[in-house]
Amino acid sequence: MAETLEDLRLIENNLPKNSYMFTSRDNITFVSHKEAVKSKATAALAEHWGIKASEIVAFGDDLIDIDILEWSGVGVAMGNALGEVKAVADYICDTNENDGVAKWIEENVLVLQ
Predict the structure, then answer these.
(1) String of DSSP letters for 51-102
(2) pLDDT in tens, 20-77
(3) What is the pLDDT of residue 77?
(4) In Å, how far from its chain's centre is CA 29?
(5) Which of 30, 58, 63, 92 is the most exposed, fewest CB within 10 Å of its CB?
(6) Residue 44: CB partners within 8 Å, gap ≥ 6?
(7) Which residues does 70 contact at the CB level (< 8 Å), separation at least 6?
(8) In the chain, where the domains are located
(9) CA dist., res. 101 & res. 85, Å (int)
(10) Considering the chain, what is the average pLDDT of its residues?
C-alpha cells in the first residue's frame, strides 16, 4: 500500500516500460504488465470457448473494471461503484451488500430462460 503521494510517484517513476500502476479506491496499489487487464483475459477465454463478446456480461465497481465493462456485450456497474464506472456501464444494479449481481441475473437472465 502506498501511503502518500510521494510513495505513488516513487513507484510510478520506477516502473518498467511495459507496466502500469493502478490504485483502487481503498488505496491499494497494483502494479501489472500493461497487457494484464480483465478484458484481454476474458477475450482469451471467450475465444477458447467460442463465446462472442456480445454474449458476455461483466460486473464491476472500481476503475480497474472499466475496460471489461466497455469490452463486454453488457457492462453492469454495482450500485456502490465509482461514478466513472457507472458512466460506462449499460446497467446499474444494486450494491454488493444487497446481492446486486444475483438480483440482476435473476431479473435479466433467468427470466429469459
Answers:
(1) --GGG-EEEE-SGGGHHHHHHSSEEEE-TTS-HHHHHH-SEE---GGGTHHH
(2) 877 777 777 788 888 888 999 999 999 999 999 999 999 999 988 999 999 999 999 9
(3) 98
(4) 15
(5) 30
(6) none
(7) 39, 88
(8) 1-36, 38-112
(9) 15
(10) 89
